[in-house]
Amino acid sequence: MILKLLDRLEETVIATLMGAATIVIFVAVVHRYASGVSWLYDYARMFNLSWAQELCIYMFVWMAKFGAAYGVRTGIHVGVDAVINRLSTPWRNRSIVFGLLSGAVFTGIVGTLGLHFVLEMSRTEQVSADMEVPMWLVYLAIPCGSYLMCFRFLQVCWSFIRTGELPSHDHSHVEGIDVEEVVHEEEDHVDEIAHPEAHDFHLDHDGPHDFRPGSHDFRPGKER
Amino acid sequence: MSAAIIFGLLIALMLTGMPISISLGLTVLTFLFTMTDVPIESVALKLFTGIEKFEIMAIPFFILAGNFLTHGGVARRMINFASTMVGHWHGGLALAGVLACALFAAVSGSSPATVVAIGSIILPAMVDQGFPKRFGAGVITTSGALGILIPPSIVMVMYSVSTNTSVGALFMAGVIPGLMLATLLGLVTWYRAWRNDYPRMAKASPKQRLDAFRESAWGLLLIVVVIGGIYSGMFTPTEAAAMSAVYAFIVAVFIYRDMPLRQVPKVLLDSANMSAMLLYIITNAVLFSFLMTSENIPQTMAGWILGHELSPWVFLLVVNLLLLLAGNVMEPSSIVLILAPILFPVAMRLGIDPVHFGILIVVNMEVGMCHPPVGLNLYVASGITKMGISELTVAVMPWLLTMLAFLLMVTYIPVISLWLPRMVGMM
């Protein structure tokens, strides 16, 4: 229940930051050009948007830190799995668990370093250049994001040990195209199909998070 | 000595299959903890400042713009336009595939997504017309890779971030090689189709062409917003990226109506997911190159190479081989972020132009996407054609060899990449 809530919160936060940052920069650019038009000048002058760039950077930094944690859950962080896919299943599983735990250790260490850093910072009066928000508040993204990421690695690791399943990201998913349907080529309804949750194919080298080594290689193609 | 330890550690960690970002970060932490007395707090600071640049923020915006327009509906319009233009030549639909890939790549930015979007629409049609499946698969798999050369390109932004080269100049420089490669791939397709007498389509009337162009023009204007905006000085590259994201949103939702408004949050979430992954690699790569610099590794390497009087000619050959090798196991962004900061100082000392060097790397990455064992495009194409990887490898050969030849051309004829940016005075 709480986990579901955390998932939702994570997704909402990063999607909102993404959209908001885009709007901020868009408005700032429009504003800059509006200031150059005489009859808009008076309106444009009422707002000062010089802080937009800084705000955008901080929004994206927060987005990046929490998005990286979300990425662990969706299996988007890719690695080199050419070697481990050739190992026997027990060794392969061991090295996957090792990889996930290393991820947890690294993000744990980084989170702790970041926390120290933020604590130290909070004793100073440092503020950011344009918006003048306290810097420690900005840097808070590092410990929060890293600890969340650490938690996600442990979560994925735990579920891998229990069920043997890893999240894997499909880099080739295209909205409005369904690979299975397309083989029978029907123009009209292809657009209507919402993203099917289970795709027929997965990329085998899609990070260490895929559990079926090289399954494509066993699929004989039709000779012409 | 320390270089050997660092790279040994990095490669060992990578081979366990952990995410590349994590192996970069762990290498740095381990080395700093055990071998040096660099204050560890500086690492925490680097983790933040690593991505605290406005230039880097072009990446999430470009991804967002691409995701809005990476849609089956857009792909279909591009294919229509392309087949009215070139469909009446030999191998009409296959040529249309090359052109459609180039057009779609210009708006989408993701190479595997291009293969899927264009491939899954055009391949069944090609098989219906009597093309052998292999032929179609070969064309689409390789043409799909055009995406990272034709601007806007994420890989180019990555290169510019890690070497401080101008994004605008790189984008400009990518245009001519992109068109050339598309033409070359088209020529190979045409020649093979002509030899084997593959089917052609009826010639489209000027009106059909105009209609198809009008349909696809909205999508194609994206590249005009980006290149035109940067070139005319209206926007900085990052602003151009943000404007293109807003433009893509308007086109997808209100003009093409491919995407209902309620789907926008999902696009935002997907884009955030992808961008965060890339930004996380960047953060850790910055950390890694900080370690490299503090251990003086690029400088030492440059000194060694200059000491042995290695000519630029040999150096570029070695760089190409190294990158092709790396392309066997990693995806383009990570390769650029890890290797560019190391190779770049050497290239500069040898008097190689930074923009030319960037284009060389990007073309090399394209080749890497199409050859086994881990060419992403191959796997995606194998998914839609239901062909095995080994069979596909044979199928892509003629085009892959063309790409390799093109890589050599780009490597040793700098003017291919440098003419346009010089012409318009961007460098």
Architecture overview:
Chain A is 61% helix and 0% strand. The longest helix of chain A has 34 residues, at 2-35. Mean pLDDT of chain A is 77; it is low at 181-224. Chain A has one domain (2-163). Chain A has helices at 2-35, 38-45, 52-74, 89-122, 135-139, 141-163, 179-183, 187-190. The mean pLDDT of chain B is 88. At the A-B interface, helix 1, helix 3, helix 4 and helix 7 of A face helix 1, helix 2, helix 3, helix 4 and helix 5 of B.
Walk me through the topology:
The complex is a heterodimer of chains A (224) and B (427).
Chain A lengths: L1 H34 L2 H8 L6 H23 L14 H34 L12 H5 L1 H23 L15 H5 L3 H4 L34
Helix pairs in contact in A: 1-2, 1-3, 3-6, 4-6
Chain B lengths: L1 H14 L4 H16 L5 H9 L8 H12 L2 H15 L5 H17 L2 H19 L3 H11 L10 H10 L3 H30 L9 H26 L5 H19 L8 H31 L2 H11 L4 H16 L4 H18 L4 H17 L5 H10 L3 H24 L2 H9 L4
Brief write-up:
The complex is a heterodimer of chains A (224) and B (427). Chain A has 224 residues and is mostly helical. In chain A, 61% of the residues lie in helices and 0% in strands.
